[in-house]
Design goal:
CATH topology of chain A: Recoverin, domain 1
Largest sheet of chain A: 2 strands, antiparallel
Distance between the termini of chain A: 22 Å
Structural class of chain A: mainly alpha
Shape of chain A: globular
Helix content of chain A: 55-70%
CATH architecture of chain A: Orthogonal Bundle
Keywords (chains A, B): Calcium, Metal-binding
Number of domains of chain A: 1
Protein name (chains A, B): S100 calcium binding protein A11
Number of helices of chain A: 4
Pfam family, one (chains A, B): S_100
Strand content of chain A: under 5%
Number of strands of chain A: 2
CATH superfamily of chain A: EF-hand
GO cellular component, one term (chains A, B): extracellular space
CATH class of chain A: Mainly Alpha
Strand order of the largest sheet of chain A: 1-2
Largest interface: A-B, 34 and 34 residues
Oligomer: homodimer
InterPro entries (chains A, B): EF-hand-dom_pair, EF_Hand_1_Ca_BS, EF_hand_dom, S-100_dom, S100_Ca-bd_sub
Order of helices and strands of chain A: HEHHEH
Radius of gyration of chain A: 12 Å
Chain lengths: ~90, ~90
């Protein structure tokens, strides 16, 4: 499990580091991450409206940037769906 | 990222399926999972008191079982520490 967690952390950092704050995902970075890393887990990942909606549902303090823990809530939701757990 | 998420889900299921409800972790299952899967991320994982404290901090509805999403909060915290993000 630790190596899988390490993969998620390093991938988050790789995308978060593209522009601006290296510890948070901008909308653009989030879009890139979702389309390239989560193409099967997020439906219609290519649709900008889907990305906007997802981003605003996660961005708890509405600052236009996703922290790691905000992003983690999405992964948890996707993982839970993927695993077939009741929500 | 999707394969790493898949690993976390399947490992959770493998431990959750040992006894009782196959979708949740009992204290015993949680203890086994932490000591064998997260030995470096959780300090003093072998100490029952550490496990008890961790379990009660995660078990939001205090039913003695951890759902996947309750467990996910722990992984997020560990991942965040591992990644050196501010909490």
């Amino acid at each position: 499990m630790e190596s899988a967690i390490g993969v998620l952390v390093s991938q988050f950092k790789a995308y978060a580091g593209c522009d601006g704050s290296s510890d948070t995902l901008s909308r653009e970075e989030f879009h890139k991450l979702v389309t390239s890393q989560l193409p099967n887990f997020v439906k219609n990942a290519g649709d900008p409206a889907v990305i906007d909606q997802l981003m605003s549902s996660l961005d708890e303090n509405s600052d236009g940037e996703l922290t790691f823990l905000e992003f983690w809530q999405l992964i948890g939701r996707l993982a839970s769906q993927h695993g077939g757990f009741s929500q």
